[in-house]
Design a protein that fits this description.
The protein folds into two domains: 98 residues, Serine Threonine Protein Phosphatase 5, Tetratricopeptide repeat, CATH 1.25.40; 89 residues, no CATH class. The chain is mainly α. The chain is 70% helix and 0% strand. The protein starts with 28 loop residues before the first helix and ends with a helix.
């Protein structure tokens, strides 16, 4: 399946530096303690999120999830919506990678609503795509198609061909699951006009 790329950057203070590889290196706990002592909640949350991103990139998804959840508690206190949405999406991505699709769906949905309210259409579309993937994996491909269509609409508007190709593959996979379920229930009308399995993919992938 084509999946939305996980986030690799966030709003962070200038003294939180990225390594040459582009992966944010975790800073010593002293940074967090300094920010906490000074009451700089946004900077403390950003530091924790950066640590989570680095842990995820190292394959330590459980540890990354704990960091993102810790940052979320702080971000909810200060209401910085853009960073909050990114944190929610990061949690959703970690949960998805751990196979916890129902929980991932909840966090992606929260992030999507925030992105839409902030006018961040591409990010909202990425969340719709991610929601669709979570729904398909949870046995709800029909519902997933609605979110894939929403993502497709925005990607078309923003002229993002790679994103369109990714969501097209996801749509085709979800549609195939819908067809399979209906055929198994004895309803073959859904197959009308489908002469070859590639017809399904051609219908969605530009």
């Amino acid at each position: 399946m084509g999946l939305p790329a996980p986030l690799t950057s966030i709003e962070c203070p200038l003294n939180i530096l990225f390594s040459d590889s582009g992966i944010c290196d975790p800073k010593p706990p002293a940074d967090r303690l300094t920010f906490a002592r000074l009451g700089m909640v946004a900077d403390e949350a950003a530091t924790i999120m950066n640590i989570g991103v680095s842990l995820r990139d190292m394959g330590r998804t459980h540890d990354a999830l704990r960091s993102f959840e810790e940052a979320l508690v702080l971000l909810r206190k200060i209401g910085r919506e853009r960073t909050l949405a990114m944190c929610l999406e990061n949690i959703g991505t970690a949960l998805r990678d751990l196979g916890r699709f129902s929980e991932a769906y909840d966090y992606f949905t929260q992030a999507q609503l925030l992105y839409r309210r902030l006018g961040m259409l591409r990010d909202a579309a990425d969340c719709d795509n991610a929601i669709g993937v979570a729904l398909s994996a949870s046995g709800r491909p029909g519902d997933a198609l609605t979110h894939f269509e929403a993502a497709r609409s925005i990607y078309e508007q923003l002229r993002l061909p790679k994103k369109l190709a990714d969501v097209g593959v996801n749509e085709a996979n979800a549609f195939s699951l819908v067809v399979l379920a209906e055929v198994n229930e004895g309803d073959t009308s859904v197959l009308a006009g489908v002469r070859d399995p590639t017809d399904v993919i051609d219908a969605f992938v530009p």
